[in-house]
# Entry
Amino acid sequence: MRILILAPFALALAACGSQPISSEIDDGTFGNATMNNSLLHMGALNATQALRDRFAAEVTPTITFPFDSAALTPEAQEVLRVQAGWIRQFPEVRFRVYGHTDLVGSNAYNKALGLRRAQAVVAFFATQGISPSRLEALVSYGETRPVVAVTTPEERNRRTVTEVSGFVGAHPTVMNGKYAAVVFREYTAGAVRVHPSNRVITTQVNPGG
# Structure
């Protein structure tokens, strides 16, 4: 009876041959749950998504371009100034600029054009006092992600999108994995207001000389 019970197990092991048993278990995503759990505990995952959503809600993340051009229009520059003002509030945060084109022209040409548009945005941010080192990457999707799937010129497809991508790991305010404190700081700082009746008026006496 014992031989009959063990027989199926022996056949199963024989079927495996020399293939490691672990290959049947790990499909390449074995460590993802642990990694995500760690990120959640550190606050990095939640804080990044919270800031990404907040940026998209509080400013316009997208600008558009003239046909076959990486020049920033006055309207685009005004949007980027607002973006830059938001970015300056968060010196701990990294951003990514995505460049896009419409579907007119070859994919290779549009890939390069999308990159030039992203680079134009980064250069403009530099004039607003933002270090290019905080812009994690310049990514060009070219014509591959249109807003409107038409083969004719379409302004809505000729765009860049600015997005929160993560945190500056070496920044002095990002310590001990407490990334969520960055978000908390900005929300609470904006909520503190001094009531006019509680203001203390002082008179400063200038020293003689």
